[in-house]
UniProtKB/TrEMBL annotation:
This is Inner membrane mitoribosome receptor MBA1, mitochondrial. GO terms for cellular component: mitochondrial inner membrane. The keyword Iron-sulfur does not apply. Keywords: Mitochondrion, Receptor, Transit peptide. It comes from Wickerhamiella sorbophila. It comes from the Eukaryota. It is found in: Mitochondrion.
Length: 272
C-alpha cells in the first residue's frame, strides 16, 4: 500500500520470553495464539542500495559483511527449525506463497474497510492500527487496490523458530522483502471521478506460521524498515522491557502504513 495516503490518520518479534512475561501473572500454562504475535524488537534489514566502493569503501565493506552474517544466521536458524519440527513440517516455499497471499488480502480488506476479513489475516497489533485508519476514510470515497506485478522475487530476510517453555516448537516467524508495482484507485462518489496512483512499493513484512497446519496457516504481524549502513546492528536478544513497552513496540511496528524514517522517505519519493 502507499503509506503517504494514510499518514494523516496516525492511530509499536514475538519471542518466547515476551510471551512468558505477558502470562507471568498467572499460574496456568502459557497459552499462545497467532493473534498475539507481534514484533517486539527490530531485526536487521539489509539496505537494497549499497554504497559505492569508490565514494565510501568502508560503508560498502560493512554492508557486505553484515549480509554474510545475516546469511549465516538465517542458515543456522533454518537448520535448527528443520531439526526441531521435522522435514515434513518444514515448508519454506509454502510459507512464502502464503505470506504473499496474506499481504495481498490484507491490503484488499483494508481499502474495502472489511474489518472482519482483516481480523482473520493479521495479528491484533496490525488489526488495531489498520482498523483505526480504515474508519477514518472519507465516506464519499471508494477505494480499490491491486498488486499489478512483483518487480522482484520475495526475499527471505529472517526466519526464527518461536519456542515456548516446555512446549515443542510449533510456530515460526519470517520476514520477507516484497517489491511490487501497485495501483490504488479512488472513486469520488459525489463526482464519479476516479483517480489512480501507480507506484513501486517495497515492504519488509513479518509473518507468523503454525507449522502443524497443512496447508500453511499464518498471520501478518508487522513490518520493519531498512537498517542504515551507518547504524548499529539491531540486537533482538536485548530485553524488550516492561509489559507496557512490549505492547507499545508491537503496536508501533504493527502499523504497517506508518511514516518511514526521513532517510527512507526521500528514497521513496525518488522511486514513485
Amino acid at each position: 500500500m502507499f503509506r503517504s495516503i494514510w499518514h494523516s490518520t496516525k492511530p509499536s518479534q514475538v519471542i518466547s520470553r515476551a510471551v512468558t512475561r505477558s502470562a507471568a501473572t498467572t499460574t496456568s500454562p502459557v497459552q499462545f495464539s497467532m493473534d498475539q504475535a507481534g514484533l517486539v524488537t527490530d531485526l536487521y534489514v539489509p539496505p537494497r542500495d549499497l554504497p559505492s566502493w569508490f565514494t565510501n569503501p568502508k560503508a560498502r565493506w560493512t554492508a557486505l559483511k553484515r549480509r554474510v552474517q545475516l546469511l549465516g544466521v538465517n542458515t543456522y536458524m533454518a537448520v535448527k527449525l528443520r531439526r526441531e519440527i521435522g522435514r515434513e513440517r518444514f515448508q519454506p516455499l509454502e510459507w512464502k506463497e502464503t505470506a504473499l497471499l496474506l499481504y495481498q488480502r490484507t491490503n484488499e480488506c483494508f481499502v474495502h474497510r472489511d474489518l472482519s476479513g482483516l481480523s482473520k489475516l493479521t495479528s491484533r497489533w496490525v488489526y488495531g492500527p489498520l482498523a483505526a485508519r480504515a474508519q477514518k476514510f472519507p465516506k464519499n470515497v471508494r477505494l480499490d487496490w491491486k498488486l499489478e506485478k512483483l518487480t522482484a522475487k520475495p526475499k527471505v530476510l529472517s526466519i526464527i523458530p518461536l519456542s515456548l517453555p516446555d512446549t515443542p516448537t510449533r510456530f515460526v516467524q519470517t520476514l520477507y522483502r516484497i517489491e511490487s508495482r501497485q495501483v490504488l484507485s479512488k472513486l469520488n462518489l459525489d463526482t464519479n471521478k476516479v483517480d489512480k496512483v501507480e507506484r513501486t512499493v517495497v515492504d519488509n513484512v513479518a509473518f507468523i506460521f503454525d507449522t502443524t497446519k497443512s496447508p500453511a496457516e499464518g498471520r501478518l504481524i508487522g513490518s520493519l524498515f531498512e537498517t542504515p549502513v551507518n547504524s548499529p546492528m539491531p540486537d533482538p536478544t536485548l530485553s524488550p522491557g516492561s509489559r507496557t513497552e512490549i505492547i507499545r513496540s508491537m503496536t508501533s511496528r504493527g502499523d504497517i502504513f506508518r511514516e518511514p524514517p526521513q532517510y527512507l522517505a526521500i528514497k521513496t519519493e525518488q522511486t514513485a
